[in-house]
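Dear Dr. H.,

I hope your travels went smoothly. While you were away I took the liberty of generating a structure for the chain from your last submission, since the lab meeting agenda had it listed for discussion. I wanted you to have the full record in hand beforehand rather than looking at slides cold. The sequence, exactly as received, is reproduced here:
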Amino acid sequence: MALPRTEPRYPEPEAVGIPIPPHLIPARFRAGFRRALEGGQLDRIEHFRRSFRLGYREGKLYLRELRRRQGVRSFPRQGRVRFRCLG
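The corresponding predicted structure, in token form, is as follows:
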């Protein structure tokens, strides 16, 4: 019997101490914050609205701080390798 699939629960910005500025649309800010926590990219026109972008930015900064608290400093950078053929 398969278990029902549940969505991962992401914290709301207010729950982690990030206030939503009064001049922004709270629902859009929360959507941007959630999108950043899910690892999504800004790939739709509605993702470029100010409230969404600022929520997305706060989400990315929150993830960075969370990783720092857990001891992960930064992920290794991907290097490039070039080969030359002499002939």
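Two observations you may find useful: Residues 25-69 form one domain. Helices lie at 26-38, 50-69.

With kind regards,
E. W.
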